[in-house]
Amino acid sequence: MKSKITFLLFVIFIIAIHGQDDEKEWWRTATFYQIYPRSFMDTTGNGIGDLKGMIQRLDHLKDAGFDTFWLSPIFKSPQKDTGYDVSDYYTIEPDYGTMDDFKALIAKAKSLGIRVMLDFIPNHTSDEHEWFIKSCANESEFRDYYVWHDGQPNPEGGRPFLPNNWISVFGGPAWTWVESRQQYYLHQFLPGQPDLNYRSDNVVKAMSDMLIYYIDMGVAGFRLDAINHLFEDALFRNETQWNPEEEIENYDDLNHEHTKDLNETFLFVYSWRKMIDDYIVQKNISSDILVMTEAYASTSDTMRYYHDPTNPNVRGAHMPFNFQLIFNFQANAKSEDIQRGIFEWLNNMPEGETANWVAGSHDHSRVASRIMPEKIHMVNTVVLTLPGSSITYMGEEIGMHDNKDVPNWDNRNKNRTPMQWNGGVGAGFTTRNANETWLPIHPNYLTVNLQAETERPRSTYKYFQSLTALRKTNALRKGDFDFKIINEDVFGYTRNYNKEEGYLILINLSGSSHHLDLKAFDTFGKNKLRVVTAAPNSRFDVGDIVEKEHVTVGLYDAVVFDYVSSASSVVLSIALFFTTIFVYLFN
Ligand code: NOJ
């Protein structure tokens, strides 16, 4: 008896520990949403989204199946780079509301069981930040807050020449001259985004304090924007050119060995992770505070953000953003391209780490426009069913398109237009007309909108919801992953868990149907496949049962099967037969 009780207690202990792991490491299987604040929901009628609007619409995240969201920047900003130029990290952008609104948003999210993450921009501030203004004025405390350089001597006198050949990501020299200091400052992005100097202890302290401030407020983590630009060569050496024969005109003409992914940057990320991990221990916070790093870098450099390759105990980001699907899931992608994208990450990811899958953001053309409208379902399928966490850019769950009519001051604005909630005035985003918002709403909002898609029996949104529901299963949370190219247009993979629960995901990239034999997949010895969910354009209906060795997949199809044996399929068919008769007789 005693031994049975001990065993029972042991089982309960194991379950409790396991539950704790899930709670602590919640991000390993999380379903993330990215909210672009300016375009989510406007409650003031000025055509610009705001925090009160987010509160009002937060139920949507729950309905869609998201458990965490990260917010593009909400801090005070002159909006030269729509919020990625912060002038005060302790004040909310007045267009969006107040700090109390933000606290109310966190509280509402908490009541729904949703985690809130901030986009944090460590590399640069706005040129209107008081630190920069004081640094330009050479105030002693702020003198070294930014990266300043005298420039190269000009033999003819007058303004010195540029310090070196560094180019800004947005084009043009990465240096701008300031009269008051008679020096150049560095900006790896716009001139309105001066780079902070992380070799200054004051900067490190000021930025670290902010992270702690927002952890105390209840945020679940941070997306660290443009993290790989944090440090630059202390000697300001010229960067080498890809093609030394050509003029340096664009950012991509240079190999960024002195401005990106410097060793110091990795060490810095590790130090921030340690600071955060130590802080949650000190404060008894039971869930990890997430560090997500945004870095467009080589695969090997990207992987270094996870942890120090020479010492896995030196942790970095829980999640370095994985942009592979953005690069590999192109309009004409073949099965091999998708495989390459997926395994570029999985084969290089260090042991013990978790993958994440991203197909869009405010920086990239929307999936329906970048690839093609029919393919939104397959992209959503892949993002939501691969092993690891998923990240969905606002609007992709309803298949929004780029609005080509957006004024072209920033080529990325076409994919930042307001969320299409319904077919009413202002698409339910605002009380204004659809063309009077900060960016014009896409005219297709009359049909592509949340409400219409909720009402249709099959829609992009309904399919999305069915996939996020599946993410709660053990198979999708913890199952293994077996990917197979079936032919150049069709690929599939299984997510099997302990021979208990499994799904086969099948994608047809092409505009023609294919007859397939899927016997190579492990379906626990069961020879029939049953449709669990299928894209709205699929030839399959939920509940359809097909022979594993004779599957006809329709054009641009995306479908998820589970496995049934012949015996259970006979029982199911009989049940279906009697249900149909019953409905017929008693209706
Ligand atoms: C990456 C952000 O996603 C992008 O929108 C921004 O322009 C740059 N970082 C600079 O902050």
From TrEMBL:
Protein's GO biological process: carbohydrate metabolic process
Signal peptide: 1-19
Reaction catalysed by this enzyme: Hydrolysis of terminal, non-reducing (1->4)-linked alpha-D-glucose residues with release of alpha-D-glucose
InterPro entries, per database record: GH, GH13_cat_dom, Glyco_hydro_b, O16G_dom_2
Regions crossing the membrane: 563-586
Residue span, Glycosyl hydrolase family 13 catalytic domain: 34-451
UniProt KW keywords: Glycoprotein, Glycosidase, Hydrolase, Membrane, Signal, Transmembrane, Transmembrane helix
EC number: 3.2.1.20
Molecular function terms, GO-annotated: alpha-1,4-glucosidase activity
Uppermost EC category: hydrolase
Family: Belongs to the glycosyl hydrolase 13 family.
Name the record gives this protein: alpha-glucosidase
Protein source organism: Polypedilum vanderplanki
